[in-house]
């Protein structure tokens, strides 16, 4: 059985707006093997933008 760290690693989501804003979250590698893209709020530009997984 895989450890929790290997199955659900901590990832950093960086804003595509170029502001440098980041979110930290966990993801399930079995369900989402590719890079994660989530639409979240960027407080520096006060809009919702895509945040992409950074490695």
TrEMBL record:
Pfam name, any one: Ribosomal_L33
Assigned GO CC terms: cytosolic large ribosomal subunit
Single biological process term from Gene Ontology: translation
Highest taxon in the source lineage: Bacteria
Keywords tagged on the record: Ribonucleoprotein, Ribosomal protein
Annotated GO MF terms: structural constituent of ribosome
PANTHER family, alphabetized: 54S RIBOSOMAL PROTEIN L39, MITOCHONDRIAL, LARGE RIBOSOMAL SUBUNIT PROTEIN BL33M
Sequence similarity: Belongs to the bacterial ribosomal protein bL33 family.
Name of the molecule in the record: Large ribosomal subunit protein bL33
């Amino acid at each position: 059985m895989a450890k929790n760290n290997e199955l659900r690693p901590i990832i950093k989501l960086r804003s595509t707006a170029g502001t440098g804003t980041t979110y930290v979250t966990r993801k399930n590698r079995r369900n989402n093997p590719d890079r994660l893209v989530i639409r979240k709020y960027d407080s520096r530009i006060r809009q919702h933008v895509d945040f992409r997984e950074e490695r």
